[in-house]
From TrEMBL:
This is Cullin family profile domain-containing protein. SMART domains: CULLIN, Cullin_Nedd8. SUPFAM superfamilies: Cullin homology domain (SSF75632), Cullin repeat-like (SSF74788), Winged helix' DNA-binding domain (SSF46785). It holds the Pfam family Cullin_AB. Keywords: Isopeptide bond, Signal, Ubl conjugation, Ubl conjugation pathway. InterPro entries: Cullin, Cullin-like_AB, Cullin_homology, Cullin_homology_sf, Cullin_N, Cullin_neddylation_domain, Cullin_repeat-like_dom_sf, WH-like_DNA-bd_sf. Residues 1-36 form the signal peptide. It comes from Eruca vesicaria subsp. sativa. Residues 431-658 form the Cullin family profile domain. Belongs to the cullin family. PROSITE patterns: CULLIN_2 (PS50069).
C-alpha cells in the first residue's frame, strides 16, 4: 500500500495521493520500469502522522492542519517473489559468464537485486551469487586443467580475464547489496568474494596449484639460462597472484620462487668460482643482479626486488667473500697493485650490498698497505736517497687516493684506513721527519723552479699530508729550521712565496708556537737588508773595493750552532770591524758573534793564460784561496795555521777545492781523494770552465753523520723536557689530585700534536717536579700526586 498525504483546511478535507516511494524510483529508472514495479512494492505498516501547523499572529487567518494518512487498501506480495526474482538474476549471471550479456537490461537487473534486498532476501541473493559463481569457476578450472604445454598459462590468463570482466558486471548489478546488506552483515563484498572464489576453485585446485607454480618457475629458469619467454604472459599471471592478495602472492609464488632461486645461484656460484678469476666472477655476479632487478621490473611485484637481490647477494657474494678477496693472482691485492679501477669499483659496489662486505675489503687493503709500506720504509737501499724515499711515499699515496676516489666513491672509512696505514709505516723509520724536511729543502732550492703557483701549492699540500702522519713533529721542526736557515743565508730559495706558504700551512696545523721562530728568520732577513742600506749610507767611501753583506740573526730564532774560529783576510776583516762599530752604535745592549761557517763569498780569479772566472765559494774556501795571492805553494799545516779553521772543516774545504772534477781550482800533491796533513797545494793554472761563474760547493753529505744525528736527537730530547713539565703542571693545576696512570695518559694526549711522549721520560719529569715542590706524593697511596699551589 502506498501512503498518501492529506491536507486539512477549514474542516474540509481534500485528499491528494502522492506516491512517495515511486517518486524516489523515478530518479533512478524510466517510467516503463516504474509501472512494472508498482504492484510489487508492499507497505504493511501504514503511517498516520497528524501534524498541527501553528498559525501566525494574523487575527483573520484560521489554523491550518496537515495530516498524513495511510492507503485504504493493501498490496499482497507474491509468495514466490524471491525465487522468481533470483531466477532472473541467476540467468543473467549465466549469460554474463557465457559472454552473452548484450541483451541484458542492467537497470532491470539492478532493480530486481535491489528489491530482493529491500524485501529482506539479501541472504538468499548473496548465497545464490556465491553458488552460481562457484559452479562457473569449477567449469573454468576443468577447461584450464585440460590445457597442455604452453597453452596452460594462456588458458589460465584467458579465463582470469573473463572472470574479471564478469565480476565487474555482477558487482554493478549487486551494488545495492554491496552497500547495505553486506555492510551490515560484515560479509566479504562482491568483488573480494569473487577473487576468493577464483583462488579457492581455480588457483588452489589440486590439479592446477602445483602445475601453475612449476610452470612459472620453469619459465624463470629458462630465462636465466638465456631462452626467450613470453614476459607479458608471465606478468599477467603474477599480477593475478598480486590481485588475489599479498599473502597469496607471497605464499603461492614468491616464497617458492626465492627458494628455487637460492638453489640455482648456490650451484651456479660454485661453478663460476671454480672456473673464473675474481674479476670475471664479479662481472657475472653483477650481471645476475642486474637481470634479477630487470626481471622484477617486468613481471614481479616491486616488493620482491629486495628479497631476490638479497638471495643473489647471499649466494654469489656473501658466501664467497673471503675466497674472492684472497684469490691468488686476481684477488683484491692484485687489483690494487695493477690499478684495476673497474674491477675494484665493481667489488666495492657488490660487497657493499652484504653485511661486513666493505669491512672485509677494507681489512685486506689495510693489511696490504701496511706490509707494502713497511717494506718501503725499512729497506736500506730505498732509504739512501731521502728525496726518492719521500717521492715514493707520495706516489703510493697518490695511487691509493685515486683508487679510493675512482673505485670506492671517496668512502670515508677507506680514507681513514689509508691514513692509519701511512701513519703506521712512516713512523717505523725514525728518520722520516729528517727525510721529509730534506725533500722540502730540495724542492724549495731547485725542484719548484719553473712550476706554476697552483702546482707548487699541490706539492706543498702533499708534504703537509705526510707531515700530519709524523708522531715526532718536533724532530721535523728541528731539521726544517736548519734547512730553512741554510736556504735563506745562501740565497738559494726558489720562491719566498712558497716558503711563506708552507710556514702558514704549518702554523695552521700546529699553532703559532710551532712557526714563531721560522717567521722570526724571515723577519731577520728583511731587517738585515734595511741594516745594510743604512751601513753603506753612513760609509760612502766603501763603494769601491770589497762588498760586505751581513745578515744579523737573532739567537733565539735560528738554529744554535757553535761559533767556528776563522782568520778572515785583512780586506774582509776591516769591513767586518766597521760593520760591528756601526751596528753596536745604532743598537744598544746587543752582542755580535760572527758565524763564518754559514757565510759565502764571490771572488774573481785569474788563472794561467789570463783565464778569468768568478768563483762562488764558502767563507772558509775564500780564506784558503786568498792565501795563494801571496804564495804559489802551501802545505796543509801552513793553511791550517794561517786560517785557524778546525781540521774537519778545513779538510772538507780543501777536498772540495782540489778533488772535485771540474771544480779543482787548486791541485794537491800527492793526488788522492783524501786530505792528509803532509799534502801540498798549488794553484791549478790549467783550470778551465765553459762558465764564467763557477760555484764550488763544500763536500758534505746530504744526510747527517751518526754523531750529528745523535746530537740532533739529544737537542730534541732536551727541548721536550720543559714541554712535558709544562703539560704536567697544566693538568695538575686543573685536576689538583691525580694518579700516575691518568697523568701519563693525559700528558701523552696533550702532547700528541707535537710528539709521542715517552712514559719513562714523563715519570722522570714528575720526579723533577716533586723535587722542585710543584707536586707531592700522597702519604698513603704513593701512586697518587697532589698539586702544590
Amino acid at each position: 500500500m502506498i501512503p498518501s498525504i492529506s491536507l486539512h483546511r477549514q474542516n474540509k478535507t481534500k485528499k491528494i495521493s502522492i506516491p512517495v516511494l515511486q517518486l524516489f524510483l523515478i530518479l533512478l529508472f524510466s517510467p516503463k520500469s516504474l509501472r512494472a514495479s508498482q504492484e510489487l512494492i508492499p507497505n504493511p505498516n501504514p503511517i498516520v502522522s497528524p501534524s498541527p501547523i501553528p498559525s501566525g499572529d494574523m487575527s483573520n487567518q484560521k489554523k491550518r492542519n496537515f495530516q498524513i494518512e495511510a492507503f485504504k487498501h493493501r498490496v499482497v506480495v507474491d509468495p514466490k517473489y524471491a525465487d522468481k526474482t533470483w531466477q532472473i538474476l541467476e540467468r543473467a549471471i549465466h549469460q554474463i559468464y557465457n559472454q552473452d550479456a548484450s541483451g541484458l537490461s542492467f537497470e532491470e537487473l539492478y532493480r530486481n537485486a535491489y528489491n530482493m534486498v529491500l524485501h529482506k532476501f539479501g541472504e538468499k541473493l548473496y548465497t545464490g551469487f556465491i553458488a552460481t559463481m562457484t559452479g562457473h569457476l569449477k567449469e573454468k578450472a576443468k577447461i584450464i586443467e585440460s590445457a597442455q604445454g604452453g597453452a596452460f598459462l594462456e588458458e589460465l590468463n584467458k579465463k582470469w580475464n573473463e572472470h574479471n570482466k564478469a565480476l565487474e558486471m555482477i558487482r554493478d548489478i549487486l551494488m545495492y547489496m554491496d552497500r547495505t546488506y553486506i555492510e551490515s552483515t560484515k560479509k566479504p563484498h562482491v568483488h573480494p568474494m569473487g577473487l576468493i572464489l577464483w583462488k579457492d576453485n581455480v588457483v588452489h585446485s589440486p590439479k592446477i596449484h602445483k602445475r601453475l607454480l612449476n610452470t612459472l618457475l620453469d619459465l624463470v629458469q629458462k630465462e636465466r639460462v638465456g631462452e626467450v619467454i613470453d614476459r607479458g604472459l608471465v606478468r599477467n599471471v603474477t599480477k593475478m597472484f598480486m590481485d588475489l592478495g599479498e599473502g597469496v602472492y607471497q605464499e603461492d609464488f614468491e616464497k617458492p620462487f626465492l627458494e628455487a632461486s637460492s638453489e640455482f645461484y648456490k650451484v651456479e656460484s660454485m661453478e663460476f668460482i671454480e672456473a673464473c678469476d675474481c674479476g670475471d666472477y664479479l662481472k657475472k655476479a653483477e650481471k645476475r643482479l642486474t637481470e634479477e632487478i630487470d626481471r622484477v621490473g617486468h613481471y614481479l611485484d616491486g616488493k620482491s626486488e629486495d628479497k631476490i637481490t638479497s638471495v643473489v647477494e647471499r649466494e654469489m657474494i656473501a658466501n664467497h667473500m673471503q675466497r674472492l678477496v684472497h684469490m691468488e693472482n686476481s684477488g683484491l691485492v692484485n687489483m690494487l697493485l695493477n690499478d684495476k679501477y673497474e674491477d675494484l669499483g665493481r667489488m666495492y659496489n657488490l660487497f657493499r650490498r652484504v653485511t661486513n662486505g666493505l669491512a672485509t675489503v677494507r681489512d685486506v687493503m689495510t693489511s696490504h698497505l701496511r706490509e707494502m709500506g713497511k717494506q718501503l720504509v725499512t729497506d736500506p737501499e730505498k732509504s739512501k736517497d731521502p728525496v726518492e724515499f719521500v717521492q715514493r711515499l707520495l706516489d703510493e699515496r697518490d695511487k691509493y687516493d685515486k683508487i679510493i676516489s675512482t673505485a670506492f666513491g671517496n668512502d670515508k672509512t677507506f680514507q681513514n684506513a689509508l691514513n692509519s696505514s701511512f701513519e703506521y709505516f712512516i713512523n717505523l723509520n725514525t728518520r722520516s721527519p729528517e727525510f721529509i724536511s730534506l725533500f722540502v729543502d730540495d724542492k724549495l732550492r731547485k725542484g719548484l723552479k719553473g712550476i706554476a703557483d697552483v702546482d707548487v701549492e699541490v706539492i706543498l699540500d702533499k708534504v703537509m699530508m705526510l707531515f700530519r702522519y709524523l708522531q715526532e713533529k718536533d724532530v721535523f721542526e728541528k731539521y726544517y729550521k736548519q734547512h730553512v736557515a741554510k736556504r735563506l743565508l745562501s740565497g738559494k730559495t726558489v720562491s719566498d712565496d712558497a716558503e711563506r706558504s708552507l710556514i702558514v700551512k704549518l702554523k695552521t696545523e700546529c699553532g703559532y708556537q710551532f712557526t714563531s721562530k721560522l717567521e722570526g728568520m724571515f723577519t731577520d732577513m728583511k731587517t738585515s737588508e734595511d741594516t745594510m742600506r743604512g751601513f753603506y749610507s753612513s760609509h760612502p767611501e766603501l763603494s769601491e773595493g770589497p762588498t760586505l753583506i751581513v745578515q744579523v740573526l737573532t739567537t733565539g730564532s735560528w738554529p744554535t750552532q757553535p761559533a767556528v774560529p776563522c782568520n778572515l783576510p785583512a780586506e774582509v776583516s776591516v769591513l767586518c770591524e766597521k760593520f760591528r762599530s756601526y751596528y753596536l752604535g745604532t743598537h744598544t745592549g746587543r752582542r755580535l758573534s760572527w758565524q763564518t761557517n754559514m757565510g759565502t763569498a764571490d771572488i774573481k780569479a785569474v788563472f794561467g793564460k789570463g783565464q778569468k772566472h768568478e768563483l762562488n765559494v764558502s767563507t772558509f774556501q775564500m780564506c784558503v784561496l786568498m792565501l795563494f795571492n801571496n804564495s804559489d805553494r802551501l802545505s796543509y799545516k801552513e793553511i791550517e795555521q794561517a786560517t785557524e779553521i778546525p781540521a774537519p772543516e778545513l779538510k772538507r774545504c780543501l777536498q772540495s777545492l782540489a778533488c772535485v772534477k771540474g771544480k779543482n781550482v787548486i791541485k794537491k800533491e800527492p793526488m788522492s781523494k783524501d786530505i792528509g796533513e803532509d799534502d801540498l797545494f798549488v794553484v791549478n793554472d790549467k783550470f778551465t770552465s765553459k762558465f764564467y761563474k763557477v760555484k764550488i760547493g763544500t763536500v758534505v753529505a746530504q744526510k747527517e753523520t751518526e754523531p750529528e744525528k745523535q746530537e740532533t736527537r739529544q737537542r730534541v730530547e732536551e727541548d721536550r723536557k720543559p714541554q712535558i713539565e709544562a703539560a704536567i703542571v697544566r693538568i695538575m693545576k686543573s685536576r689538583k689530585i691525580l694518579d700516575h696512570n691518568n697523568i701519563i695518559a693525559e700528558v701523552t694526549k696533550q702532547l700528541q700534536p707535537r710528539f709521542l711522549a715517552n712514559p719513562t721520560e714523563i715519570k722522570k719529569r714528575i720526579e723533577s717536579l716533586i723535587e722542585r715542590d710543584f707536586l707531592e706524593r700522597d702519604n698513603t697511596d704513593r701512586k697518587l700526586y697532589r698539586y702544590l699551589a
